[in-house]
Amino acid sequence: MGLQSISSDQGRPERIALVSVHGDPAIEIGAEEAGGQNVYVRQVGEALAQLGWQVDMFTRQADLHKPERVQHQANCRTIRLRAGPTEFISRDEIFEYLPKFVDQLLGFQAQEGIQYPLVHTNYWLSSWVGMELKKHQPLAQVHTYHSLGAVKYDNVPHIPDIGATRLAVEKACLETAECVVATSPQEEEHMRSHLSTLGNVQIIPCGTDIKHYGGISRAEARQKLGIPLDAKVVFYIGRFDPRKGIETLVRAIAQSQFKTTDNLQLMIAGGSRPGNLDGQERNRIEGIVRELGLADITQFPGRISTEDLPFYYAAADVSVVPSHYEPFGLVAIEAMASLTPVVASDVGGLQFTVLPEETGLLVPPKDVAGFAQAIDRILADPQLKQQWGLAARKRVETTFSWRGVAQQLSQLYQQLLH
Ligand code: UDP
């Protein structure tokens, strides 16, 4: 698809805005609450720019030391708007600053003499921004939820104070946005069963950079990371959040048949600096690791940079995604792109990405014995690992490349605009 086909009436590239209030697309991934949404917005933004769109990505300024604008490529930039304290605040605390965010976004358009005809909003907070903007200008809104409060709250002991507002906003957005993007058939089902039967939904998955992963051999990766070739490496990466189910993984490792051999290694990667919000969950997990006598075989390498990630996935024998709830789960497809089979919870988007008995295994969430058995089955059989790893790579190549995802989004935007 060329630049010409998506230019505006004046012949310039069509402008679009991606709004991601709490997920800054220009930030380092893995720190604090930064995860899949940040990756999604950044990758989609850059890929859309390469397809010829003029992409502006808006986020909240959460750190005074970070620049107000970051130019990623000629047609793609991040713009940080001042709304609320210029420091990290949890996503559950941001809602009250959204009117200010809308003002700033309107001010930015006025200042630049532009108006976005289409806004793609991300997460419920940004969906509210999109719905408000519509009151001021003609606008097509596309929305991706990234997480559905209605489903998440089924799985947590305490619903935050903002819960009722979130549920109402999520429902209104589904019913009024020009199109809501579900990243898996499972997410669409959840929208229908938990939010509303009204509204327009299209399934376009998340993606990954298929050239970035899969080019490194297990031996090469292990040499770089100092892991012996005969070690059996179980790998987790992601945010330290109770919803991620890291506890299930740790308890499963304590039941592994390989625990008594001396070459089992558990690697729990991700997480930010001590003292940050996610530190509480990390401390809790470290406590369980010690309590179960796993400290000697467990490593916490911390945040892994995008450049180093392919080595970690390639070094692993199995990548585990034990989430209680997962709308998509980028980690699963990154591991699969790296030829590493995945053992994941049988929930949400993981049911779409991981094909049981073909690219990995699915286990009911929180089922410690089930995870132990599934992990052991792959660790015990290097041939199976290789076979499922190859099939996993193939599945990602055909279904989950960012470029393919961006092309589908681009087509959707064009339909909505013309
Ligand atoms: N990630 C990373 N370094 C880390 C931890 C996580 O680059 O130290 C990335 C990971 O590779 C993935 C994203 O953060 O791309 C997490 O996305 P996912 O959809 O798995 O989970 P979410 O954070 O959205 O719940």
Shape: globular
Distance from N terminus to C terminus (CA atoms, Å) equals 16 Å
The percent range for helix content is 25-40%
Radius of gyration: 21 Å
The major beta sheet can be summarized as:
8 strands, mixed
Tell me the name of the CATH class of the largest domain: Alpha Beta
Indicate the proportion of strand residues: 15-25%
Structural class: alpha/beta
How would you classify the quaternary structure?
single chain
Helix tally?
15
CATH fold naming of the largest domain: Rossmann fold
Widest β-sheet, arrangement of strands: 3-4-2-1-5-6-7-8
Order of helices and strands: EHEEEHEHEHHEHEHEHEHEHEHEHEHHH
**Count of spatially separate domains:** 2
Heterogens: uridine-5'-diphosphate
Q: Considering the protein shown, what is the CATH homologous superfamily of the largest domain? A: Glycogen Phosphorylase B
Total beta strand runs:
14
Gross CATH architecture of the largest domain: 3-Layer(aba) Sandwich
Q: pLDDT under 50 segments (min length 5)? A: none
In round numbers, the mean pLDDT is 93
